[in-house]
Design brief:
Elements (H helix, E strand, L loop, with lengths): L26 H8 L1 H9 L11 H21 L10 H11 L4 H6 L8 E5 L5 E6 L3
Antiparallel strand pairs: 1-2
Helix pairs in contact: 1-2, 3-4
Length: 134
């Protein structure tokens, strides 16, 4: 971005969800072991976790406190905050920002590497949203 001296903050709360026993397997290997339908449920449902892993609900429980204590206060102070994270931790934040239900977030597609820009009202609701071109 051509900017120097930007503060970079790293936090485990924004890590990708833990896929447990699915970690390290490609989708085909996982489907072969557990079946296509079960793997789809684990990957796309809101509250069903793979064996030994996290559901999106679990990921939300991890990311939301960080958003509320670290990200949101900065935004409400007028700071611009860039959040770079993994797909499911971002899905959890999008769920909150867009006030999506568990069914709604399952249907919400997030393109890889496509910035989502939110401008918030003083009450932390979304005033404006733009999905930037790829």
């Amino acid at each position: 971005m051509g900017q120097t001296n930007l503060q970079v903050i790293r936090n485990l709360a924004l890590n990708e969800r833990d896929y447990g026993d699915l970690s390290g397997l490609n989708k085909d290997d996982a489907r072969q072991k557990w079946g296509e339908e079960q793997v789809h449920i684990w990957r796309r449902s809101y509250d069903v976790a793979p064996p030994g892993g996290e559901s999106l609900k679990d990921t939300l429980a991890r990311t939301l406190p960080y958003y509320n204590t670290e990200i949101l206060p900065r935004v409400l102070r007028g700071e611009r905050v860039l959040v770079a994270a993994h797909g499911n931790s971002l899905r959890a934040l999008v769920m909150v920002l867009e006030r999506l239900s568990p069914e709604g977030i399952v249907k919400r597609e997030l393109a890889t590497g496509v910035p989502l820009v939110y401008r918030l009202n003083a009450d932390s609701t979304v005033a404006e949203f733009k999905e930037m071109a790829a």
